[in-house]
Amino acid sequence: MSKNKVPIWIKKIKQEIIDVLAESMNKDLGGPLSVLRYGKGSDYGLLGTVFKLIGENEKAKEAFMEASIAYWPYESGKPEGGWQEDANKPEYIYEERAGNRQIKAAICAFLAGDREKADQIFAWAGENLDIPKYALDFNRPGGQGEHLCSGELILCQAYVGARLGRFSAAKEKTTEAKSIFDYFVRNKNKTIDMEYTYQCEVLMKLAEYKLNPTPENKAKAQNALIAYKNACQENMKGLMNYLYIFDFQEAFPEVFDPVL
């Protein structure tokens, strides 16, 4: 996208993000899972996405690195000082939340150009998202607390698996997540966020191509990413999803480089 032809809606969003970040610069962001810390990471991530969309790549890298640090500023998968949250909750709850933050931190580090840091954070995310079976079963369809979050968690595991090159596991997890989403659509009339529906398709087709690299499977993977991009209309939700689209394209250029 030419710098001289930046749509008004993107200009407006960029300025809003800059204004919000200016207000948060001197705030105490708190512990690893604080809302303020997550918010700052999200704002920097959006800013990096905007810069990348309009072709200001160096500014995008700077913003993505700031986002990664805000999401996860620690030198290990779990902060040495503990979670600094309500101690009455099971630790796996904090680990799962950390794993989700770490996926975003890893993607932002990757898009900033620090591939080694990204791989390390993805590995930490995989460890933290590996929650106890009884906890996952509680939220699965038919469980006492059945909830969409079970499918979302498993899809996050699939995403991490794909980014670490574990494509058999990624395909298995994606299939499992999709079956959970289908259950809630069919039986509970739930709407699944585009983040999950389109990532299911991209991850499945990517894994199938990696496991069986035929021209037909490559075309299916590319079409899945094109469909994801086309679903991202001129709104904030679509803009947020571009973070994953960029990650797929740059992490797997041998599959997606011709796509966008």
Could you characterize what this model shows?
- The chain is mainly alpha-helical and 260 residues long.
- The longest helix is centred in the middle third of the chain and has 22 residues, at 91-112.
- The protein is built from 12 helices and no strands.
Structure summarized in a few sentences:
The chain is an all-alpha fold and 260 residues long.
Q: What overall geometry do the principal axes of the alpha carbons give?
A: globular
How much helicity do the residues have?
Answer: over 70%
- Main β sheet profile: none
What is the terminal-to-terminal distance? 11 Å
Structural class: mainly alpha
What characteristics describe this protein?
about 260 residues, mainly alpha, 12 helices, about 0% strand
Ordered list of secondary-structure elements with their pairings:
Layout: H1 8-24, H2 35-53, H3 57-71, H4 91-112, H5 115-128, H6 133-139, H7 149-163, H8 167-188, H9 194-211, H10 215-231, H11 236-251, H12 253-256
Helix pairs in contact: 1-2, 2-3, 2-11, 3-4, 4-5, 4-11, 5-7, 7-8, 7-9, 8-9, 9-10, 10-11
